[in-house]
Amino acid sequence: MAATLSDVAQLAGVSIKTVSNVIHDHPNIRPATKQRVLDAIAAVGYRPNLTARNLRSGRTGVISLVLPTLRNPYFAELAEAVIEAAEREGLSVLIEQSRGADAGARASTAQLVDGMLFSTLGSEAEDTGLYAQLPAGPHSPVDHVTMRNTEAIRAATEHLLALGRRRIVALGARPGDTSGAGSLRLLGYRQALAAAGLDSRPELERAVESWTRFDGAAATEALLNSGTPFDGIVAFNDALALGALRTLGQRGIRVPEQVSVIGFDDLDDARYSLPALTTISPGREQIATLAVQMLAERIAERGEPLPARTITVPFALVERESTAQASAD
Amino acid sequence: MAATLSDVAQLAGVSIKTVSNVIHDHPNIRPATKQRVLDAIAAVGYRPNLTARNLRSGRTGVISLVLPTLRNPYFAELAEAVIEAAEREGLSVLIEQSRGADAGARASTAQLVDGMLFSTLGSEAEDTGLYAQLPAGPHSPVDHVTMRNTEAIRAATEHLLALGRRRIVALGARPGDTSGAGSLRLLGYRQALAAAGLDSRPELERAVESWTRFDGAAATEALLNSGTPFDGIVAFNDALALGALRTLGQRGIRVPEQVSVIGFDDLDDARYSLPALTTISPGREQIATLAVQMLAERIAERGEPLPARTITVPFALVERESTAQASAD
DNA sequence: TTGTAAGCGTTATCAT
DNA sequence: ATGATAACGCTTACAA
Lengths: 329, 329
What we know:
The structure is a homodimer.
Chain A: H1 5-12, H2 16-23, H3 31-44, H4 50-57, E1 62-67, H5 73-88, E2 92-97, H6 105-109, E3 115-118, H7 124-131, E4 144-147, H8 149-162, E5 168-173, H9 181-195, E6 205-207, H10 213-226, E7 232-235, H11 238-250, E8 260-264, H12 269-272, E9 278-281, H13 284-300, E10 310-313, E11 316-318
Parallel strand pairs in A: 1-2, 1-3, 4-10, 5-6, 5-7, 7-8, 8-9
Antiparallel strand pairs in A: 9-11
Helix pairs in contact in A: 1-2, 1-3, 5-13, 8-9, 10-11
The structure holds a DNA duplex.
Protein name (chains A, B): LacI family transcriptional regulator
Keywords (chains A, B): DNA-binding, Transcription, Transcription regulation
InterPro entries (chains A, B): HTH_LacI, LacI/GalR-like_sensor, Lambda_DNA-bd_dom_sf, Peripla_BP_I
C-alpha cells in the first residue's frame, strides 16, 4: 500500500496540514518541524496521490491528442512535437485515434483530461463533423492553429516556375473538397499559374483518393500512362511526392533533370528519399507549441471563457535535390 | 460546472445511491424510478467524474507507453498497435518519451497510471538502466514480450543463401553491444553462415552508430568505397535497409539483380520503397496485444503479484522485390 | 427498493 | 506556526 499524508503525519508527530504545507513549500514552517516531516516522507517513501489531488483541484494535468493514425508520419511527427510542447507546460498527453464518428470521445467526455487537441486530415466533412462531438458542447469556443495552405503551395508552384518549369502538375486535388486543405492548396497552385500568365489545364490537376504514398505513386502512374507531358510536380503533401518519386524512379524518369518535384510537410522522410525532396515546412513545432499553449491558457481560465482564437503560422520552403537547378536540359 | 450525482438525485427526487444504482445497472430498481433518474441524467447532461471514481477504485484506466521517439516509424507503428490493443481492454494510453535516464518517471511514479509499458531500442545499457527506475521498485516482477531476434535474422540470412548469395553483408552490428538486440541478430547471421559452411568474414560485418536510414545509407556508402565485394545485405532493421537501398540506387547498383536486400521490422515504408523491401515481420500486433493483456492481468491482480513472465512471439518472412529471384545474372 | 453515511487522499479554510 | 475539519464526487456497506 502506498503511504498517505496521514502516515507521514503520524510518523512525524504532526497533522496532515503541516505535511501538506511542507510539500507545497508554504511559508511559516519551523525549520525543525520541516526537517522532521521531510525525514518522515523519506522514511515511508511517500508520493502524493495524483488522483486525489486531481479530484480536489478539478484538473488532471492530462490533455488528449486526437488524430486519425500514428502510422502516417505526418501525425507521428506532430504527436511528438505536441508531447514535447506539453511537457514544457507540465502536461501529459493521452493519444486517441479518431475512428470516424466518435472523434476521441472516450477519455474526454469522461473528464479524464483537461482539454483536447484535434488534428485532422484536413478534409471538409471531417472538420465539420467534429464540432458536434465536442464534450463541452457546441457553444464553447474552439481555437484554431492553421498553416498557410494556399500561400505555401503558391510559393511551391512559383518555385518551379522560377526554375523554368511550365507544365506543372498539381498532385492531390480532392474532387469533393471545397473548403478543406485540399481545395486551399489547389487554389494556391492556380493562383501561381495565373500570376505567371499561364492557363490552368484540367489535365494537369490530378485527383487522388487519399494523400498517401500509395496514391501518389498510382496517380503518377496514371499520369504517365495518359501521355500528358509535364516537367514539374507540386504534390499537396510529402507522401504523395514520395510516391511520385517512386514511380518516376521506376519509369527511369530523372528528377530533377527531367521533372522537378516539390512536396508539403517536411517529413523526416523527405530528407532521405532519392532524390532528397524539396518541400514546404509548415511550421510543425510552432503549431504544436501554440496549440498546447492556447489550450493551457484555456485550462487556466476556467470560468471566464476566452474568445475563440485563430492563429496562422508561417511556412518555409526547404530546397533539396528534387528541384535542384538542372545544369543542362 | 459539470453536473454531479447529487444534482441528478435532487432533480429526480431520489438519493444519490439510487442514481448510482441506475448508472451501474444494479438490479432491484423500480422501472418508474429508473426512468425518472434517466430523464434527470439526460436533463442535466450528467457525466460521471472519472477522477472521483478513480480515487474510490484506486484505478485510472490509463497505462503509459514509454518509448524513445515517435519519429521512428517502428515506434509509431508499435504505439498504434498498443493503443488499439489497450482500447480493446478498455484502457487509454499516455505516451511518454524516455529521454535517457528518467525513463518516463513523471506520470508514472505519480500514480496517474495503472501500469507501464516500455519499448526500447534494444541496446544493452538502455534495458539495464531501466529497472532501477521502475516506480514499483526493483523487486516487483516485470513481464517481457520479445521477438525471435536470432532466429529471424538467421532465417533472413538463409533466405539470401537460398538465392545463391554467398558474400552477404550484415548491416547493423553494434560493437559495444553484447546482449541487446544487435548482438542477438548478429548471432543469427553468423549461425546461418556457419550452418551453410561459410566462414564469417569481419569485413562483411558492418557496424553503425544507430539503426537509422541515415546510418544505413552511410554504412553502405563506406562499404562500397571499401571495395569489398558483396551480393547480399541482411540489414538488422528496415531503416538500415531503406538507407542501403537509397545508396545502392544512387550508385546505380541494381536490387535485386546485383544485390539482394532484406530488412527487419516490416514497416509500412518497406512496402513502398524502390524496390519494395523483403523483410522480417516480427509480430508487432501480437506483441502489442500480449503486452497489453499481460499488463491488464497484472492490474487486475493487485495484491497477489503474478510471477514475471516472458513470452516470445513468432516471426514471418515477407518476400518482396528486393530479394526476387534474379532471372539471369 | 431505497436512503444514510463513511471513506478514498488531497487541499484549504478556518481556528488556535 | 500548526491543528481540526470540511469539502472534491464517487462507490459501497449497512440500515430502513
